[in-house]
Recover the amino acids of this structure.
């Protein structure tokens, strides 16, 4: 039995897993383990690369809705209502801080 996208390993009954992985319930023999190691490499996940905290914070300030609010604040300044412009920008910053804190 070969694994496929239509029947992934976690959908198989426990008794069918060794056959699907071409092994036995006791595991692989030393020779087969060495062949698989040479062919596929070590059985390790790659290390997770995370973005810096500063970039993750900036992400909260430059998504689509935040950009619309930055523009709305600028338009409020251009229309002669600086109080509204400051209020809109404050909302963007406060929302960015809370979103960053929640994500962190």
């Amino acid at each position: 039995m070969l694994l496929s996208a239509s029947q992934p390993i976690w959908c198989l009954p426990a008794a069918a897993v060794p056959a699907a992985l071409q092994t036995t319930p006791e595991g692989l023999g030393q020779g087969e383990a060495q062949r698989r190691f040479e062919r596929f490499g070590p059985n390790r996940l790659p290390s997770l690369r995370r973005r810096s905290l500063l970039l993750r914070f900036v992400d909260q300030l430059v998504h689509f809705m935040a950009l619309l609010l930055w523009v709305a604040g600028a338009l409020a300044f251009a229309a002669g209502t600086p109080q509204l412009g400051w209020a809109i920008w404050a909302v963007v910053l406060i929302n960015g801080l809370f979103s960053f804190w929640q994500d962190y």
User: Anything to note?
Assistant: The chain has a mean pLDDT of 91. Residues 53-103 form one domain.
